[in-house]
Design a protein that fits this description.
It is built from 10 helices and no strands. It is an all-alpha fold.
Length: 180
């Protein structure tokens, strides 16, 4: 890992321990999400909520080229992109393990992420499958198809030449997710 990435991970670990959304943050979320979506958001761990809020703010600041409706769906996807992790909540040490395996043995992370979330593979399955689970949960909560697709694809390796509207929105979401 390069030094900047190490600093990012240290900051991410610190935030997981101590960062919680403020009352103002939660008020902002209620303006963006429906009641059903808000139920999903509230199921997430406080540090995941705070992370999702940072992702949403980052996409808010960079999405002026899209329509009002497209920006709303992007903000909803930013707020709910990790909601699938609530199916099998991860402990902090499991999150650290995922980051280490991803950095040191990325092929193993992919392989170990298949199957059922049981035993020693549990954390890896959650890491790999949470986008699909989150998309399913968001769809069941009545989220628009574009937001659902962005949630499902948020960890997808995106072709740099991809230029559809959805791909441009996805690229923005992924960039924000990896920066905050």
């Amino acid at each position: 890992m390069i030094p900047g990435r190490i600093l990012y991970r240290v900051r991410q670990f610190w935030n997981a321990l101590f960062l919680v959304p403020s009352r103002d943050d939660l008020e902002l979320v209620t303006q963006e999400l429906t009641t059903e979506q808000m139920f999903l958001f509230r199921q997430m761990h406080r540090s995941e909520q705070a992370h999702s809020l940072r992702v949403m703010r980052a996409v808010m600041n960079a999405s002026d080229i899209f329509s009002v409706e497209q920006r709303k769906y992007l903000r909803q996807a930013a707020l709910l992109h990790d909601v699938g992790k609530t199916r099998f909540p991860l402990r902090l040490w499991e999150r650290v393990l995922i980051v280490l395996v991803k950095a040191l043995m990325p092929d193993s992370l992919h392989e170990w992420g298949e199957g059922e979330p049981r035993g020693w593979r549990r954390a890896f399955v959650v890491a790999r499958q949470h986008p699909l689970w989150g998309a399913q949960m968001a769809a069941e909560a009545g989220s628009p198809p574009l937001a659902v697709s962005l949630i499902e694809r948020h960890q997808e390796l995106l072709d740099p030449a991809a230029e559809t509207l959805e791909d441009r929105l996805l690229r923005l979401l992924q960039s924000a997710d990896h920066q905050v």
